[in-house]
Amino acid sequence: SQQGEEDPQALSIQEGENATMNCSYKTSINNLQWYRQNSGRGLVHLILIRSNEREKHSGRLRVTLDTSKKSSSLLITASRAADTASYFCASISNQAGTALIFGKGTTLSVSS
Amino acid sequence: GAGVSQSPRYKVTKRGQDVALRCDPISGHVSLYWYRQALGQGPEFLTYFNYEAQQDKSGLPNDRFSAERPEGSISTLTIQRTEQRDSAMYRCASSPAPVARGRLGVSSNEKLFFGSGTQLSVL
């Protein structure tokens, strides 16, 4: 089963533009995380936002969390070709158990 | 080691054979997760451990799948009588903090460190 659903499934932009990806989840959560995966390689943790936080920044990344709408967004500013990857949100449901469940991901393509 | 290590990197087997996939987590990490990922999909949860205790195995597809972590470090995911539908990338991840569910809900959930995975192909 998957707790999160990312939107859009695929996104193509030019270098320098901003990329926004959204994640919706089904049940109340403890925190929500975003991961990046390049070309089928390993997943790398990007950022974690807790349920009592509304916004968090890390370099060119900005994550927001709206628990009332059960949604989160990941903004990548001034994108680069190296940002081309799949991005996944992941969360633990307070109700379903303690496993980190991933969404299906958004595939981002940044062209120069 | 410096990161999560998985072996073998690739495994090709014939339908009906048993396979064992190994995961060596980052030294000192308490939690260990197994996921399966199909091409173009997100990681699908299989099972996880805190120390040597298997906390949740609800993601294991059927009783052909099992996992163990007898000494709280290295873990093995075993698939018996493999079928073609078992073909996928199997990923292991570890985390320094245990995931615990208390009276008020989940008490800890730090980030996961993933290995490079084992690509399993069942012919």
Describe the structure.
- The complex is a heterodimer of chains A (about 110) and B (about 120).
- With about 110 residues, chain A is mainly β.
- The mean pLDDT of chain A is about 90.
- Chain A is built from no helices and 11 strands.
- In chain A, about 0% of the residues lie in helices and about 60% in strands.
- In chain A, a hairpin with a 2-residue loop joins β6 and β7 (about 60-65).
- With about 120 residues, chain B is mainly beta.
- Chain B is about 0% helix and about 50% strand.
- Chain B has strands spanning about 5, 10-15, 20-25, 30-35, 45-50, 55, 65-70, 75-80, 90-95, 100, 105, 115, 120.
- In chain B, the strands form 3 sheets. In chain B, strands 2, 4, 5, 6, 9, 12 and 13 form a 7-stranded mixed sheet that branches. In chain B, strands 1-3-8-7 form a 4-stranded antiparallel sheet, with no helix packed on it. In chain B, strands 10-11 form a two-stranded antiparallel sheet.
- Chain B is globular and about 40 Å long.
- The chains are: A mainly beta (about 110), B mainly beta (about 120).
